[in-house]
Design brief:
The protein has a single domain, classed as 2-Layer Sandwich (Alpha-Beta Plaits). It is built from three helices and four strands, in the order βαββαβα. The two termini are 28 Å apart. The model has no long low-confidence stretch (mean pLDDT 94).
């Protein structure tokens, strides 16, 4: 499965980079394929391992924020691996036509 998620610490003021960095560190240390951009972090793996990473990322932010908001979108497609890359490759093929 592929999960795109965004964690927003609430009650910490305007600057949220440090609390968000805590979440990204959890994702990066997971060993799962991932990407982070300005709005979301995307991670790929099996259901239980991906959801465990999301949970630990939320918990890492909750250590420094009194409230945490989580937005999550999932593509559940059993049997597909490397979907993060293959979806982009397919899109690029269609754009080059």
């Amino acid at each position: 499965m592929i999960v795109a998620f965004s964690i927003t610490p609430l009650g910490v003021g305007e600057g949220v980079a440090e609390p968000v960095a805590r979440a990204v560190k959890v994702v990066r240390s997971s060993g799962l394929p991932h990407r982070t951009d300005a709005m979301f972090t995307t991670i790929e793996g099996e259901w239980d391992e991906v959801m465990d990473v999301v949970k630990r990322a939320v918990e890492a932010v909750a250590e420094v924020a009194p409230r945490v908001s989580l937005v999550l979108k999932a593509d559940v497609r059993p049997g597909i691996t490397d979907g993060m890359t293959s979806k982009i490759e397919s899109l690029e093929r269609h754009l080059s036509e």
